[in-house]
Amino acid sequence: MLTTKFLQLFKRRTSGSLKEGKSTFTDDCVRKVHCTGNRQWIRKLNTQWKQFVTEIEPFPARFSGRGIVICAGGVNYFTCAWININMLRRNGCTLPIEVWYTGIELNAEAITALERLDVRCRNCKDCTTTNLTALTSYAMKPFAILQSDFREVLYLDADNNCISDPAFLFDSKEYQEHGTIFWPDFWTTDRHNPIWKIIDFEEDGSIEQESGQLLINKEKCWKELNLCLHFNLNKKDYYRMLLGDKDTFRFAWKALHTPYYMIADGVGLCGMDESAVGFCGMSMVQHDPAGEILFLHRNWFKWDIMKDDEIMWTTIKRYQPGTTRLFRLKFLTRGKIKLKFLDLGGDVETVSFRELFGDYEIRCLEILKELRSSELYSRFLQHTYFSLSRPAYADGHTENIFSASQTEVLSD
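The structure assignment produced for this chain is given below.
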C-alpha cells in the first residue's frame, strides 16, 4: 500500500497561467506545442517537482524478480491483452505477468482465465486509498510499474505485440549499464516547449519517447519513476506540453540527470498498401538493441474491432540508417468515415511482413476468433455493458431496478 505521506504528495495539484495548447507536427519531425506559460507558472512547477523529489521515500525492499506489466481494463484493452499474452506464451515467454485494471473493469471470470496463463491480475484500488479518478488513462501506467511486485519491469501496452520472447532484454548490456531502455517516437520536442525550462534542462534535440514498451530497473530509477507519476498526476499542466504519458518518463529522467539508453533504430511502420492512397501505416515497429524488429504496437485498428479474417499487416517500412526522418499523415475516406494513417518519407526500406514473420497475424486472429466464440467473452461483454449502463452495478447492486413493492404500485 502507498504510505499516507506518499499519497499526500501525489494529491498536490498545480495551477497557473498556461494558454491552451495543441501539438502540431512539422514535415521534418518536430513536435510543436501551441502553449506558453509565464515565468511565475514555470517557476511554480519547477519548485513543486523539486520539492516533491526531496520527499520521496527510499526504495522499498518488498520488490523482487523480473516480470511484465500490462494495463488492460475494459473490452478493447482486455481483448488486445488476451492476444498479446497468448502470443507471448506461445512464443516461449515464461516471465511472470501482472495485468492491472481499475474497479470492475475485469470480471471474475476474465481474471480466472488470465490466471491460467500465469498472470496475476492487480486492481489499482487495492494499492491506494487516493481518488482513483487520478489514475485513469495514462497515469495508470507509471503507477502500475511502481506498485508491481517486480524489481525489474518490462512494461507493455496491451495492444503492443512481441514478435518473439522479449526476456533477453533484461540481460542486454545496454540495460545492464543504464538500468533503463526507452524506445523512440517519430519526432523531437520543439526547443520552445516550456518543459525544458520547467525541468532546468537545456534543449538537446533528442528524439521523443514512445512508451508502448519500457524496460526499467525500479531500484536504480526509483526517484525517476516517482517523478514521472508526479508529472502524470498533474496532467492538466504537463499534458498540455507533452503527449499523454509517453514523454513524462524521458523528462523525469532528464530532470534528475539520469542517463538512459534510447534504442538507436528509428521507429518504423507496419500496415497495408491501399490502391487509393498507397501505404497506410497503422502500427509502430520497434527494435531490440541489435536492430531486430521486436514489437508491433497496434495504435490504430486494435484487435477488438477486427474481423476474424481481416489482414492488416502486409508491409513494413523502416528508415535506412542515417537518413533524414520524414513522415506524413494520410486520410482514407470510407463513406462518412475518415480514417487516419501514417507514412514514412525519405530513404526508407520496404519489406513484406509475411516474408519476415510468416503467419504471425493469422495466429493472432485465430486467438481472437476463439475468444469471441467463448462464453467467457460473451459474459465479459455483458459485464462491461452493465457496468457502463447501470451505475449501481459497479457497487455490487445487481437486483432488479424495481422492487416488488414498486412493481405493485405501478400495476395499480
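Interim note for the steering committee: The first strand starts at residue 23 and ends at 25. The first helix runs from residue 4 to 10.
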